[in-house]
Amino acid sequence: QLQASGGGLVQAGVSLRLSCAASGRTFSNYAMGWFRQAPGKEREFVAGISWNGRWTYYADSVKGRFTISRDNAKNTVYLQMNSLKPEDTAVYYCAADPTGRGSDSTFFGSWGQGTQVTVSS
Asked: Which residues of the chain have pLDDT under 50?
């Protein structure tokens, strides 16, 4: 199971850090990723991180503002979001990729419960 947390209502320009705690699996075997879905839009890939944290991948829309990281000892993956914009408003989900790579959004599954991020202008 994956449980995301840390969302909230914030003003544009501030930062938030999302967390996703994993249970019931060998966390370090999986790549992890963050996705988001805004109202009326399809779910989109935001960021991915390989099983060992060595490689990270980002959507162009968040590159330079968001940072994905993981702590395998805590079975947790994080998404540090800086310089938030209203267009970042969405429900954010974490997911696991059994290939361990994290570079291909089609391999992600085991979606956790999302956390709402709302950015006001």
From this structure: none
